[in-house]
Amino acid sequence: MPLTTPVATTAVAAAPLTRARRVLLALTAAVALLVAGLAVPARAADPLDITGRVVFPSGYTYDASAPPRFEVRYPTSATTTEAVRYPVLYVTVAADGTFTVPGSRLESTRQYYLLLADGQQRLVAGYVNASGGISPQHPAGALFSPGRTGVVVSTTIGQQVTGRIVLPSGYTADANRPLSLWANVGTPYAGDERWTYGKIASDGSFVVGGFASGQAVRISILDPQEKLYDGAWNPTDGYFSATRLKAGTVNAGASGLTLRPNLAGSISGRVVADAAFLANTSVSLDAVVDTSGIKEGFSYDAADDGTFTIPDLDTGRSYAISMFTFGSLQSGALRADGSWSPVPRDDKGFAATWSSLKKIRPTATGVVLRPTVSEGVHGFVTVPDGFQFDRWDTNAARVQLWRRGTDGVWATNATDVALVEPNGWFSLRAFDEAKRTEDHLLYFEPNASVNAKNARFTAGFWTGSTTALTSDPAKAKVVRHTTGVDVRIPFAVRNLTKPSVTGTVRVGSAVKVAAGTWDPSSVTTSVQWLRDGTAISGATSTTYTPKAADEGTKLSVRVTANGGTGWLATSATSAAVTVAPAPISNVTRVSISGTVGYGKTVWANRGTWSQTPTSTSVQWLRDGVAISGATGSSYKVTKSDVGTQLSVRVTAKAADGSTARSTSVQTKVPKVTPTVKVSVPSVKAGTKLKATVTVDSGGLVTKPLGTVAVTIGSKTIKVTLTATHAGKVTVTLPAQAKGSHKVTATYSPTSTSTTYLTGATSSAVTVKVT
Where are the beta strands (DSSP E) in 420-465? Predict the structure, then answer.
């Protein structure tokens, strides 16, 4: 796979940084190379200049495009064995070997190292020593003061290391972020370590040089894309490592090396354990490559739910997964059969168990770790809302194990103590392994008498997770050493504001309970209504309607709050309220007595009531609407009432101020049936008859309107009754033969009169014709 060739220049810098900062290292190197290309312009001599000449060896050809140069450095302190600082400046060596370090860039009170590096990587690189030669590391180099002149540096042709980088399938080179290669000499991560950047060609071949013959060299590569598992190369097994401590060396002059970096990958999975252990334990995961137990790269912490990912691993090899924790989960490693190996995290521990451990490639997901739990007494002290224990307090809350002596008496052991964590968690084991199978008691000591923060807690022996602590060991419950979270030291729910009864407290009127506020706020509540302090059977709803039996008694409500696991239920009772009588109500409905008709007088029957009214008021209604002024016990039916619905409403008021109404059934006021009379005087035969018809409404309508029809025999004569007739009209009948004849008259009201009147027929009269 083709590679992009980096700048063809050798740079010498400080020891490389950690794997996590590789990109930053690459940028630093790029800046260094950029500075290297800056030539010092011609200028007047400075009395602080350091000047001299490099004597090139036979067979060396100067290349102006990649000339030799000096890095000017100074020590960290006066002790020359300490690490040196990064270059102050770079000074190019001329073709005739001369060089000048400008004094304007130097401090007169400092001394400086001159580190030679050849752009062609042919001359041996290193620090100029006192004799003018080149030493690989700075402790053997000479320090030069500003103003030193006539420095003569003798150089020799050095050795190179060559080879080829073979990239894995799936990797694509990026011209903007090319691979880098460097060689390190000196002790890894020590002050004398020095490295040289190499050149990588497009076909992957590389060369890095400037080493003394036979010098031990470590080769490393860097992938700015972070797709490769790069780092320091180990020629023994061909793998790369994030640490140069695990990388082997090749001797300068080695050639034909083949570097085969693999893609980087990750291993992810989950630590499966009780959530309480995970939440209260710092769990770190490592990928281990061999029996040494040394982790590859960094440790990675599992999330609160136990999930983890170990990134930046070599997909070309397999790893054992180890876990480390300070908690009750046992540190160890995953066995091939999925079980847990609680191995010590040292060379001997991994060496002894390595063959039994599961080896995983860095493409795996869903790896499950089931660490064993150290047997002990594990649990929580229940913590109120917003509270945290302070384990750093001199008088911090703690739990103790008590053991029964040979005399049968319970006693504490000063070593069997655990401080309570901020969230209430505690985990302890009997320090005497042989005593773990014995019965123990658990004692909680909040030090409330000297620790004001813990004043709400009481000391005592555990009696169970749902029962209160006790000061009597004889009443305590025995605890066992297990791998579970078995103990919850309970805390009583606190009532912050009392419950209360809301609504009008009287017979027949529903009231509700306001449950009050509690700590914790997440409580669930139950209700019991009380009559004179005694529970009312079945009255456990949030509402209650007082009955007749409650009248005059004291009503209250008791609320019991349950906080769930670890909380002791607490009850609080509201203030008692006297139950008032039920408000007045109608027992027997109001009614109308008397005949309901025009001109008639009717009376209001006021009904009966649940309480004797102190007063009643009457209102007569026409079609349900109050009749103005009609508020007496009796009422005379008027013309306006004819044809409507008449009713009466009585409002009663009790001594307690309550009122109630009752309205009678509506009664229809009927229309008036008028009296129709007809009279016909006797006449001679051949003479027409004169019938007089009178329509009388009894005063309701003085001038009825309509039609009057008079019938004699088979003949009927109709006339219109108008207002001018004032209810009386004469009708001419045809002459009749001698004899007696029956005459009747019928009245039919018009649409106007029909509002009040119905039709009517007179009684028949006999008229004689002689």
Answer: 425-428, 440-445, 460-461
Reduced to 3 states, what is the DSSP secondary structure of residue 29? helix
Alpha carbon 25 to its chain's center? 40
Distance CA 409, CA 393 (A): 31
CB burial of residue 146 (10 Å; 0-12, 13-18, 19+): buried
Strands 567-568 and 491-492, how do they pair? Answer: parallel
Report the helix count and the strand count for the chain, using DSSP H and E.
3, 65
What lies within 8 Å, CB to CB, of 578 at 6+ separation is 505, 552, 553, 554, 555
Local structure of 299: helix, strand or coil: coil
DSSP string for residues in 115-165: EEEETTS-BPPEEE-TTS-EESSGGGSPPB-TT---EEEE--B-EEEEEEE
Q: Are 442 and 469 in contact (CB under 8 A)?
A: no
The CA distance from 523 to 505, in Å, is 27
| C-alpha count within 13 angstroms, C-beta hemisphere, residue 726 | 0
Which residues on adjacent β-strands are paired with residue 184?
195, 218
The residue type of 576 is: A
CB 318 within 8 A of CB 288: no
d(CA 87, CA 195): 14
Q: Write out pLDDT tens, residues 324-337.
A: 998 889 999 999 99
- List strand residue ranges (DSSP E) for 589-679, in order: 591-593, 601-605, 608-609, 615-622, 625-626, 634-636, 645-653, 659-663, 667-668, 675-679
Distance CA 300, CA 284 (A): 5
pLDDT in tens, 406-417: 888 898 887 889
- Rounded to whole angstroms, how far apart are CA atoms 680 and 682? 7
Cα dihedral sign for 538, 539, 544, 548? positive
Tokens matching residue 728:
């009386």
Tell me how many degrees the CA angle 270-272-275 measures, rounded to the nearest 5. Answer: 115
Query: In terms of Cα–Cα distance, which of 764, 755, 728 is closest to 672?
Result: 755
Q: Quick one: DSSP state of residue 655?
A: T
d(CA 490, CA 484): 18
Q: How confident is the model at residue 345 (pLDDT cuts 50, 70, 90)?
A: low
130 — phi, psi (to 5°)? -65, -25
Best CA proximity match to 471, nearest among 485, 461, 457, 458 = 461
Phi, psi of 550 (to 5 degrees): -85, -15
In one-letter notation, the amino acid at residue 698 is G
| Residue 221: band (very low, low, confident or very high) from pLDDT cuts 50, 70, 90 | very high
Q: Are strands 159-165 and 205-211 parallel, antiparallel or unpaired?
A: antiparallel
Q: Considering only CA atoms, give the Rg of the chain.
A: 58
Element (H, E) at 90: strand 89-92
Neighbours of 121 (CB within 10 A): 25
Q: What is the mean pLDDT of residues 132-152?
A: 93
57-113: pLDDT as tens digits:
999 999 999 999 999 998 877 665 566 776 789 999 999 999 999 999 999 999 999
Indicate the SS3 state at residue 640. Answer: helix
What does the pLDDT read at residue 404? 85
pLDDT of residue 242: 85
Q: Across the strands, what pairs with 562?
A: 524
- Cα separation, 438 vs 239, in Å, equals 53
Q: What residues form DSSP beta bridges with 13?
A: 195
Structure tokens at 171: 């990797």
DSSP state for residue 754 in the 8-state scheme: G
Report the range of poorest mean pLDDT among 75-79, 127-131, 176-180, 248-252.
75-79
pTM: 0.64
618 touches 627 (CB < 8 A)? no
